[in-house]
């Protein structure tokens, strides 16, 4: 093992090596992860523990939430199906995970002095995934978490005695006001410190009122605060070795730990579910615009590989990695519609409201027409039926929520962006022969026709905390869209639960 560690540390790429240099690098290291309870964080923790079983410790910053203590949350998280494979490979993997009570919006991240001391003396690599990804987050909270939280974490990282790399997860849409996005930090939408002062003393309602003015061309508080945090990192990184990863729309896993895992309705996932349930019939989108989706495991591979490269090669300048697919393997929303619809026709979901039949349109009036005819009218009738049969009406509520999310997403479904990917290509070149041979860290999808990889990552949605199972197979439980909807013409599942072979 020592030989591989040495090789990795020296950045050698010899043919004799029999282990991925990325995996070898993390063996023996102490890692700190924020956002580990989230969609991407879980996949990061899993891959790290599975591919580098000798990793020394993985500290995760976790807050108590929804009446659950930090310990309860972590115990629940580790039961998640995404950890099945690592559980099999290394049954004691949980012993490596060291949860730390933290709240990123609080001064000093609300970490106790004792825990802070432990982190400062031990951590070698930081992965910062925590963020609010809600598009409608009030500006004050989005700033406190995405921008100030990042600043606070940087402050902590600067004091870490053994830190080798700090990896920040941003988004490819942080600079979505530009059409061509290079792997550089652009000027921020506003001076972060001035904004922090402003939100400190201004009343919440006044901040809400002036938010559209402050956002300017930015479509939401999420992308705005992610742009600010990139700039803050550039300004305040000091001597730290930092890299920024910018994924586009992150979808279900391609291969790892198994195809199709997802546990979030963010990005396109919720829309696909609504379409598959037959509830969503019309979507504002441009057929010719690129649907830039990337599987979560590919993003995590790139993140870990970038961590290795940053720590071992210590590039002079901070590197930004655009983690996108459109430039390499473009797939368009029009193709997506056909692909998603044909998949649902072949593999109908359980208890669908109607037969799936969603269409994209870029015409606002046509969309409004179909919203009235195909969304609202059936919802009103269905809710009437529910009332008459003594049950609680809920379809209109679902439809309204769907419309709200479609409104927030349409900015991204009607435009295309060009992201350069030179750093991603460079990183691929840096991976040693063993990395390429074993494909342990595939960081881009280039040799598969688009539909091939979509077959995995769009149509397989499995388990997770939200009990989603949509593997080109029936959907089991989807909170809120499904519960209570027992339409007489509900589509029958194409295969049984036993055949499905999932844990739920
Ligand atoms: C056929 C072809 C299609 C083509 C289709 C094109 C679409 C084109 C998309 C472009 C996509 C760009 C993506 C940008 C790239 C990033 O950077 S992605 C990361 C960015 N963040 C996001 O995507 C988040 C967007 N979502 C939001 O901001 C908020 O969820 C919304 C939309 C404002 C809704 O807020 P809300 O009404 O308060 O609802 P929310 O609290 O989110 O959810 C309440 C409950 O409903 C559940 N739920 C939410 N949505 C759903 C759903 N759809 N189904 C079932 N349950 C749901 C939640 O899980 C939650 O359940 P519990 O946790 O309570 O059990
Ligand atoms: N999903 C996507 O499509 C994309 C995501 N990204 C970026 O990737 C990163 C991860 O996203 P994703 O996993 O999807 O997001 P999730 O919403 O699934 O996870 C967010 C994580 O941040 C944690 N968190 C939120 N608020 C706080 C807080 N106040 N203190 C401590 N921790 C907090 C959450 O913890 P808790 O469980 O306690 O809520 C959770 O672990 C984000 O930085 C996001 O911007 C970029 C592009 C696309």
TrEMBL record:
List its EC numbers. Answer: 1.2.1.84
- Domain Fatty acyl-CoA reductase C-terminal as annotated: residue spans: 375-438
Reaction it catalyzes: a long-chain fatty acyl-CoA + 2 NADPH + 2 H(+) = a long-chain primary fatty alcohol + 2 NADP(+) + CoA; (9Z,12Z)-octadecadienoyl-CoA + 2 NADPH + 2 H(+) = (9Z,12Z)-octadecadien-1-ol + 2 NADP(+) + CoA; octadecanoyl-CoA + 2 NADPH + 2 H(+) = octadecan-1-ol + 2 NADP(+) + CoA; 18-methylnonadecanoyl-CoA + 2 NADPH + 2 H(+) = 18-methylnonadecan-1-ol + 2 NADP(+) + CoA
Q: Matching InterPro entries, A to Z?
A: FAR, FAR_C, FAR_NAD-bd, NAD(P)-bd_dom_sf
* Membrane-protein topology: Single-pass membrane protein
- Enzyme class, top EC level, equals oxidoreductase
Query: According to its UniProt record, which protein family does this protein belong to?
Result: Belongs to the fatty acyl-CoA reductase family.
Q: What is this protein called?
A: Fatty acyl-CoA reductase
Q: Which organism is it from?
A: Anas zonorhyncha (Eastern spot-billed duck)
Species lineage? Eukaryota, Metazoa, Chordata, Craniata, Vertebrata
């Amino acid at each position: 093992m020592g030989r591989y560690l040495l090789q990795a540390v020296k950045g050698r790429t010899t043919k004799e090596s029999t282990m991925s240099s990325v995996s070898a690098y993390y063996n023996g290291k102490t890692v700190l992860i924020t956002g580990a309870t989230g969609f991407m964080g879980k996949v990061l923790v899993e891959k790290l523990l599975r591919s580098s079983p000798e990793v020394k410790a993985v500290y995760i910053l976790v807050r108590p939430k929804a009446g659950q203590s930090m310990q309860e949350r972590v115990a629940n998280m580790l039961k998640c199906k995404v950890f099945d494979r690592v559980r099999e490979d290394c049954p004691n993997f949980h012993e490596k995970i060291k949860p730390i009570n933290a709240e990123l919006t609080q001064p000093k991240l609300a970490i106790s002095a004792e825990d802070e001391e432990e982190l400062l003396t031990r951590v070698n690599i930081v992965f910062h995934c925590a963020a609010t990804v809600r598009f409608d987050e009030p500006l004050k909270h989005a700033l406190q978490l995405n921008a100030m939280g990042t600043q606070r974490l940087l402050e902590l990282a600067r004091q870490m005695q053994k830190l080798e790399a700090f990896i920040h997860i941003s988004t490819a849409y942080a600079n979505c006001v530009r059409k061509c996005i290079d792997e550089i930090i652009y000027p921020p939408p506003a001076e972060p410190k001035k904004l922090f002062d402003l939100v400190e003393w201004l009343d919440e309602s006044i901040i809400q009122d002036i938010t559209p003015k402050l956002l300017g061309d930015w479509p939401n508080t999420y992308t705005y605060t992610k742009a600010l945090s990139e700039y803050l990192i550039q300004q305040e990184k000091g001597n730290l070795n930092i890299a920024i990863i910018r994924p586009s729309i992150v979808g279900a896993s391609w291969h790892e730990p198994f195809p199709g895992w997802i546990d979030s309705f963010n990005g396109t996932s919720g829309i696909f579910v609504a379409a598959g349930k037959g509830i969503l019939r019309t979507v504002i989108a441009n057929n010719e615009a690129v649907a830039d989706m990337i599987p979560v495991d590919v993003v995590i591979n790139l993140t870990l590989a970038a961590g290795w490269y940053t720590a071992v090669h210590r590039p002079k300048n901070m590197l930004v990695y655009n983690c996108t697919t459109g430039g390499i393997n473009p797939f368009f929303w029009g193709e997506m519609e056909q692909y998603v619809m044909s998949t649902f026709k072949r593999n109908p979901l359980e208890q669908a409201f109607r037969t799936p039949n969603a269409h994209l349109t870029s015409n606002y009036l046509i969309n409004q027409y179909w919203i009235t005819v195909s969304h609202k009218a059936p919802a009103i009738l269905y809710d009437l039926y529910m009332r008459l049969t003594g049950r609680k009406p809920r379809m209109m509520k679902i439809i309204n929520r769907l419309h709200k999310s479609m409104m927030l997403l349409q900015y991204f479904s009607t435009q295309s962006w060009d992201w350069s990917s030179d750093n991603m290509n460079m990183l691929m070149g840096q991976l040693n022969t063993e990395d390429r041979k074993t494909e342990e860290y595939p960081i881009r999808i280039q040799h598969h026709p688009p539909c091939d990889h979509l077959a995995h990552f769009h149509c397989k949605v499995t388990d997770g905390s939200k009990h989603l199972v949509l593997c080109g197979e029936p959907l089991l439980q989807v909170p809120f869209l499904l519960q209570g909807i027992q339409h007489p013409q509900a589509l029958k599942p194409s295969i049984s639960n036993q055949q499905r072979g999932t844990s739920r």
